[in-house]
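Known limitations

Files may contain more than one protein. Parsers should not assume a single record per file. Below, a two-record file is shown to illustrate correct handling: read the sequence, read the token line, then continue until end of file.
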Amino acid sequence: MQMTKITALLLVLGMAAGSAQAASSIDGGNITFKGAITTSPCGITADSADQVVDLGTVTASKLKKGEEVRRTPFSIVLTDCELGTQKTAKVKFTGSPANGNDELLGLQGTEGAKGAGIAIMSDNNTVIKPGEDSPAFNLNNGDNVLRFQAQVQRINDTADVTAGRFNVQTGFLVSYD
């Protein structure tokens, strides 16, 4: 009889321990959902809204000589466009201009890099000044790809170009006409 009570007690304790193990959990992380609802005629893809454009490595000597360096293409994709009277879009890049050249975005977060800035050009090679609208892009119903190029440039002919790493951040606004 004593043995049966002990066996029953062990069985109950074992089941309770098994239940406790099954109920335990691990902190797995967080998920953030973000987006926007707009009255604009088009949406913007998530990849376009938050992107990194790698400009690679440019030699200081080329910039000092005023030589052209490679242009890096990037795009903003407008999605699900339902056009009414608004048939064109313009993009304004909101970053800070470079000291000494208001056509370029100024370098930020530099680790030594100086004397240069970033030019943003439309697909027809027109430089888009920070804070000013791009040339108009004609839109179609559905998806539209707005193509741009970015290029490292010397701020001006007298700027001392210093080698180093840099980051440049800019926001953008899309307006419709």
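...continuing to the second record:
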Amino acid sequence: MKKDKKPFITIVSGSPRSGTSMMMRMLEAGGLSVVTDSFPPPDQFNVGGYYEHANVRKLYNQQDGSWLWMAEGKVVKIFYRGIPALPSIYDYLVIFMERPLEDSITSWKRLVVQWSPMDAAKGLPEAMRPDVRDVVTANKAAALAFVKTQPHIKVMHVAYADVLADPTGQSEAIEKFLKLGLDTVKMAAVVAGAASISDEADEIR
């Protein structure tokens, strides 16, 4: 007797400032519903918004994925650190955004300086910690090791630089992986449109 398929969830993952917001905008433009509470709002670092949701912090802090029902058939952004906490009751299609670590951290620090002025009483923001490279590297390693052991998780790695260089080709490759009937022309237009707004690459992450 054939078992029914599990509900599926699409996830965009990676390190902070690796192109995750850009990918979320591409998927939304292509026709995939997104899970976001629109906070933080758009700013000069992400003119299209950050596509985050407060519930994702429950994965980070309490390993609580009970809220993921709201992401069934949709896409949600979850950084590396939350991937090992994904409950096995769903099937997942995960797009890992890849960007050189130093580039991501430099961009992340620039953003944090604007968002969170230094406050000794509150401690250093995560991006400013001396061990931030080790933390991000460990989170990535844990996420990649986890998905290799989970047959219900399918993975695609997408280089941020490749999307900027060839948005059409990368959009088509992503649709081939997801098989969701997304509009790849509209997906590619997100990258081209954002790049025309500014030469600052930070604005299309």
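Parsers that stop after the first record will miss the second one. For reference, the second record is described as follows. The helical segments are 20-30, 56-62, 101-115, 132-148, 160-165, 167-178, 184-197.
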